[in-house]
Q: What sequence folds into this?
């Protein structure tokens, strides 16, 4: 993926605003959204707000027509600020406090995800107002971040939970799964779609309350340092599996990373240098406690380069905190750099600024938004 | 293509309004308040995605929540309104000349200001009535702290998902009982039982140990969708609910009020509950 900004433009923004900088490009987000739409025709997308909960992202994707996948009351406040139609939102955190449920209902989000008996019971007092998605877990060794350990019921429990919900008078709209973030192959998505299809058919044989929705989660891969299939290729087998579903089934997805990863870059300055064990060490003004936090939490390895060109030497890029874990790149080939030189991290939109900390009381990277769409404030929810 | 607003009360069912003009919208705080004009219902006020009141059908709700207990009682001198910031209940209570003092406890001054500005017909000048005493406070705090007694308490709350939750608690009903004069009545908005049967069942369970006579009465309010709306009725004077049509007619005439929905016949009939509701509250013979 070509970066959305050339070196000259990066340099001039760094001069204008100073570093560390976090450049966020709305046009890239829009084109990512469109390419996912083309790859998964007929699927409705709910942007996973947690990936990058920023005003410009919400505004841009709202204008694109996306819905929003929320997981907390804080994310609801963010959506409220943008007058997001609550009918276009789903609450997907499988474990909720009573307060979370109430906040969500007061916002107008009435779709929730559950994956166990206890959680199902929490919804009993609200059962007339809500629709539920039952999350099923499919372990995924191919995903960088496997989410099946913490959430989802095993496929074998699904029917029992569906029948329990029906007995309790609760409306389960359908099934959901999340095979893990940054899935390297489509195999697990396909497997999960097929398994869900089988569960839905089995349930239909025993119940007169049809399931209407399948939420295929996220996990759509983007290219960091490692090659991944392009999105059309990745989605082709998914489409084949989805086409076998009953025509009544409404398919939705919760992309996060795919929509925002390519839309941001980090621009840092070299603040100091040293030589240790024959390797050049460069200290940057942001690191793993800042926008590179995804290196720790998200296990992401971002493409990093310097603007300066030249003969390459082994180098280590370190962040600005006092902690020795604060290493952006342990072993990278870099030209000889001097303090003030710019180092650019690409593909840095997802789970980066979202998980930045204030450790060492360092100032966070300044977020500069590029190509923001005109603010056509949708005052009320257009049906 | 006109703009539309859809209520988000239920996931799988709902009503939608076209919007001709937005008068007010605030969505950035903890709640979303929207006041707009709809060609069928006139001015519509929605809070957190749920219709609170409309210009066209508010009289049904406000008349029934007010006049049923006032006419049944026949000699209310002191009335307490909890909530009701739009002023509709206050307007209806003020119609009764026999009432000497009306205290209204509303948690949010902004609701009153907003309603006076955008829904002026709701209060129709009632906030300027010398008998009205407006207190900005939490309803439960007020009733827990006051030593005043009332002949009638009207709880005109929002639905129990939001801040109105405490007004559906045993604690609140118990405090209300303490503040009622002998023979006094408590009435409370209680949701649409066809859609939210739990609310009626929960209220019934809480009122039963506190009052000699408790029941529900109903009225169909078009924008409270899903069937009739229910009102909780609680008093220690069993005679009030048993009043004959003749007695109700006499009290109604004596009150001198004019009503558009309320009639003595409707008053009597509103206590006739459908079988499923009687069953749910354990009142089916």
A:
């Amino acid at each position: 993926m070509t970066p959305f900004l050339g070196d000259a433009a990066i340099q001039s923004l760094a001069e204008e605003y100073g570093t560390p900088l976090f450049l966020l490009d709305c046009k890239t987000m829009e084109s990512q959204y469109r390419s996912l739409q083309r790859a998964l025709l007929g699927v409705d997308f709910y942007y996973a707000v947690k990936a990058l909960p920023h005003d410009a992202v919400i505004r841009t994707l709202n204008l694109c027509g996306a819905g929003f996948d929320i997981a907390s009351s804080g994310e609801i406040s963010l959506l409220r600020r943008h007058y997001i139609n609550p009918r276009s939102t789903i609450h997907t955190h499988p474990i909720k406090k009573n307060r979370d449920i109430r906040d969500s209902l007061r916002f107008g989000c009435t779709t929730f995800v559950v994956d166990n008996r206890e959680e199902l019971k929490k919804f009993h007092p609200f059962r007339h107002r809500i629709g539920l998605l039952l999350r099923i877990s499919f372990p995924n060794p191919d995903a960088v971040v496997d989410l099946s350990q913490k959430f989802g019921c095993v496929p074998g429990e699904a029917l029992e939970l569906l029948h329990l919900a029906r007995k309790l008078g609760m409306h389960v709209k359908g099934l959901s799964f999340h095979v893990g973030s940054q899935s390297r192959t489509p195999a697990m998505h396909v497997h999960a779609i097929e398994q869900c299809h089988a569960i839905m058919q089995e349930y239909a044989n025993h119940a007169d309350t049809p399931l209407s929705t399948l939420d295929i989660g996220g996990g759509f891969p983007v290219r960091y340092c490692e090659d991944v299939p392009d999105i059309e290729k990745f989605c082709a087998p998914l489409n084949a599996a989805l086409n076998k579903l009953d025509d009544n089934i409404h398919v939705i997805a919760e992309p996060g990373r795919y929509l925002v990863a390519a839309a941001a870059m980090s621009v840092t300055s070299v603040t100091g240098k040293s030589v240790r064990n024959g390797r050049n060490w460069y200290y940057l003004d942001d690191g793993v406690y800042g926008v590179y936090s995804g290196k720790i939490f998200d296990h992401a390895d971002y493409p990093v380069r310097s603007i300066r060109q030249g003969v390459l030497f082994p180098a280590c890029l370190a962040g600005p905190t006092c902690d020795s874990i604060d290493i952006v790149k342990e072993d990278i080939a870099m030209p000889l750099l001097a303090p003030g030189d710019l180092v650019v991290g690409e593909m840095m939109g997802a789970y980066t600024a979202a998980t930045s900390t204030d450790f060492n009381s360092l100032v966070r990277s300044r977020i500069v938004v590029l190509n923001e769409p005109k603010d056509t404030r949708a005052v009320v929810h257009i049906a | 293509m006109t703009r539309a607003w859809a209520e988000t009360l239920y996931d799988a069912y709902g009503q939608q309004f076209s919007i001709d003009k937005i008068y007010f919208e605030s969505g950035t705080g903890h709640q979303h308040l929207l006041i707009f004009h709809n060609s069928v219902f006139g001015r519509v006020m929605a809070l957190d995605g749920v219709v609170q009141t409309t210009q066209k059908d508010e009289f049904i709700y406000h008349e029934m929540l007010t006049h049923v207990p006032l006419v049944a009682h026949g000699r209310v001198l002191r009335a307490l309104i909890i909530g009701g910031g739009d002023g509709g209940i206050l307007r209806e209570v003020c119609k009764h000349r026999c009432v000497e003092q009306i205290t209204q406890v509303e948690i949010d001054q902004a609701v009153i200001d907003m309603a006076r500005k955008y829904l002026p017909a709701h209060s129709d000048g009632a906030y300027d009535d010398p008998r009205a005493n407006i207190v900005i406070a939490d309803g439960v705090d007020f009733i827990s702290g006051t030593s005043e007694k009332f002949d009638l308490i009207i709880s005109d709350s929002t639905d129990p998902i939001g801040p109105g939750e405490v007004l559906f608690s045993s604690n609140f009903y118990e405090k209300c009982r303490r503040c009622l004069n002998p023979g006094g009545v408590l009435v409370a908005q209680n949701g649409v039982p066809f859609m939210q049967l739990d609310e009626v069942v929960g209220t019934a369970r809480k009122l039963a140990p506190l009052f000699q006579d408790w029941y529900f009465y109903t009225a169909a309010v078009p924008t409270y969708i899903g069937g009739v709306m229910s009102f909780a009725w609680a008093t220690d004077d069993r005679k009030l609910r048993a009043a004959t049509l003749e007695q109700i007619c006499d009290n109604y005439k004596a009150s001198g009020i004019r009503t558009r929905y309320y009639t003595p016949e409707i008053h009597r009939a509103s206590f006739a509950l459908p079988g499923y509701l009687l069953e749910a509250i354990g009142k089916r013979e």
Residues 174 and 213 of chain A are 4 Å apart (CA to CA). The interface with chain B takes residues 77, 80-81, 83, 86-87, 102, 105-111, 125-126, 128-131, 171, 173, 379-383 of chain A (CB under 8 Å).
